[in-house]
Structures are given as structure tokens and as C-alpha cells.
């Protein structure tokens, strides 16, 4: 009997602790504050459009309108960050001792000045200067050798014969074959042995050495 009473008291205690923690984690209606105001430049007092108003650590926020005006629901004690491109960030804390459910601010943002390295502007070179520099430019020997290899006719023929066709070439070849088959459906396809253009291509390929054995 005593053991049953102890178990019941333990369950009641756990339920009470869980209820208290839930009440602590959930904000009460009195802690919700309507934050509104305007974000302006500190030097000219102009509204900053599309400025970010973010509640830090909560993943919530809003942006100002074209006049820099904003409005967002926050909690007492929240930290609010104001930021915009070209201005320094500003963070404020919502007071915890507010008696009203509204809080207005006029937030001024200071320009964030970025100093870039000096840029030297030179006049456009004349045609004579360009030709002189182009002719006197030294090109490494390896670049010359790569250019010779890329323009070598024998190397290009070897690459053409050995490299496999990619997907686009294979599909185009298959489509051409299907088109030819559909075009000559129901009749005898012409033979290239009687085609003078095919003979001309064959003679050119034979002169180039395309039919020689590659070792």
C-alpha cells in the first residue's frame, strides 16, 4: 500500500514539474511586444528601404518598406539586429520592464565606409605601341609546342579515328540512319558505287592516307 502511494506521489510530482517547465518555455501574452519604428541614415535622416530587422536566435525577422518603416512582434528581452548593405549593423535589446505591449524605436544606421586600394588609370596605348609590345612578347617554348601539336594534321586524323563518338554524335547518327531508311521505304536505296561524289571522297581519303595501317 505504501509503495503504491509513493508511486502516485512520484507521478504527481513529475506532472507538476512538466507543467511548470511548459509554462516557463511558452511566452505569456503579457511578454509579447509589438515593435515598430523607422530605420534612417544617421547623416541625412533618410529612410533606409529594405533594411533587415532580425530577432537574434529566433529565426524571425522582417524588412523595412520604401520609407524605412517596419513592424514586428517580439518578446521582452529579445535582441534585435538592424542591418543593410553599406551600413554598420546595430543591435538593441527589448526592455524586460515594459508596462505597455508596444515599443517604438527610431534606429539610425551609420555608413560603413570601405577603403579600396588606389587604382592607376593609364591612357590607351597607340597602335604603334601595341604592335611593338605584341612583336616583342616572349612566348614560352612549351606553348609553341602545344600549338604545333594541336594544328598537326596527322594528329587530328588520329584523334578523329580513335576518339569514340559522344552522346550527341551517336544520337545524330542514329537519327540520320532512321531518316534515310524512312526516305527510301518501299524502294531500292541508291548504291554509292555509282555515286561520283562518294568516289571523290574515297580518292581524297586514300591520298591523305586514311586507309594506312596505324602502328
From TrEMBL:
<feature type="signal peptide">
    <location>
        <begin position="1"/>
        <end position="22"/>
    </location>
</feature>
<dbReference type="InterPro" id="IPR008969">
    <property type="entry name" value="CarboxyPept-like_regulatory"/>
</dbReference>
<dbReference type="Pfam" id="PF13715">
    <property type="entry name" value="CarbopepD_reg_2"/>
</dbReference>
<keyword id="KW-0732">Signal</keyword>
<protein>
    <submittedName>
        <fullName>Carboxypeptidase-like regulatory domain-containing protein</fullName>
    </submittedName>
</protein>
Amino acid at each position: 500500500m505504501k509503495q503504491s502511494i509513493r508511486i502516485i506521489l512520484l507521478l504527481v510530482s513529475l506532472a507538476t514539474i512538466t507543467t511548470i517547465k511548459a509554462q516557463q518555455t511558452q511566452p505569456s501574452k503579457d511578454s509579447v511586444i509589438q515593435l515598430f519604428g523607422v530605420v534612417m541614415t544617421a547623416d541625412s535622416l533618410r529612410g533606409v528601404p529594405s533594411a533587415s530587422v532580425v530577432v537574434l536566435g529566433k529565426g524571425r525577422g522582417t524588412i523595412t518598406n520604401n520609407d524605412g518603416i517596419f513592424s514586428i512582434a517580439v518578446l521582452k528581452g529579445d535582441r534585435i539586429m538592424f542591418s543593410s548593405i553599406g551600413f554598420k549593423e546595430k543591435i538593441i535589446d527589448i526592455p524586460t520592464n515594459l508596462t505597455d505591449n508596444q515599443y517604438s524605436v527610431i534606429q539610425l544606421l551609420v555608413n560603413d565606409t570601405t577603403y579600396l586600394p588606389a587604382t592607376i588609370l593609364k591612357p590607351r596605348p597607340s597602335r604603334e605601341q601595341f604592335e611593338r609590345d605584341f612583336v616583342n612578347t616572349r612566348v614560352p617554348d612549351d606553348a609553341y609546342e602545344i600549338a604545333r601539336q594541336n594544328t598537326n594534321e596527322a594528329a587530328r586524323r588520329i584523334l578523329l579515328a580513335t576518339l569514340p563518338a559522344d552522346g550527341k554524335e551517336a544520337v545524330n547518327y542514329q537519327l540520320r540512319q532512321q531518316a534515310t531508311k524512312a526516305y527510301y521505304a518501299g524502294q531500292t536505296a541508291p548504291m554509292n558505287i555509282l555515286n561520283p561524289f562518294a568516289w571523290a571522297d574515297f580518292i581524297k581519303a586514300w591520298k591523305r592516307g586514311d586507309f594506312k595501317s596505324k602502328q
